[in-house]
Amino acid sequence: MAHKVRYKFNGVAKEINFSYSRYQNMHEAVADAEGIDLTQFLQTEQQLASISKDKKTVRNFRDAEFIKMGFSDLYFLKNGQE
């Protein structure tokens, strides 16, 4: 089943196809679509996850970092939604 992700990058609305076989989450997919290297980000996120007591801390870190990178309004489209 095909999934789509809609997002804004530097204020420009975009939409991409998404596959769980290629990406772990939609954040990785949109970064790849925009040519952003997440190596350092993923290392920091992994370190934070290993010391954090809850998933909310990691999610807040991810959201804040992606806003700094220029992403906003990041979400999955429901099937049939255009």
Strand order of the largest sheet: 2-1-3
In terms of per-residue confidence, which ranges show pLDDT below 50 for 5 or more consecutive residues?
Answer: none
Largest sheet: 3 strands, antiparallel
Alpha-carbon Rg, integer:
13 Å
Let me know the average pLDDT: 92
Computed structural class: alpha+beta
Specify the overall morphology: globular
Task: Give the N-terminus to C-terminus distance in angstroms.
Answer: 16 Å
Helix content: 40-55%
Number of helices: 3
Strand content: 25-35%
Order of helices and strands: EEHHHE
Q: How many strand elements? A: 3
How many domains, in number, for the residues?
1
Pfam families: DUF2960 (PF11173)
InterPro entries: DUF2960 (IPR021343)
Organism: Alteromonas naphthalenivorans
Protein name: DUF2960 domain-containing protein
Question: How is this fold's topology laid out?
Answer:
Elements: E1 3-9, E2 12-18, H1 26-33, H2 39-51, H3 55-69, E3 71-77
Antiparallel strand pairs: 1-2, 1-3
Helix pairs in contact: 2-3
Structure description:
It holds the Pfam family DUF2960. This is DUF2960 domain-containing protein. InterPro entries: DUF2960 (IPR021343). The chain has 82 residues and is α+β, with helices and mostly antiparallel strands. The protein has one domain. The protein contains three helices and three strands; from the N terminus they run E-E-H-H-H-E. Strands 2-1-3 form a three-stranded antiparallel beta sheet. Helix 2 packs antiparallel against helix 3. It is globular and about 35 Å long. The two termini are 16 Å apart. The model has no long low-confidence stretch (mean pLDDT 92).
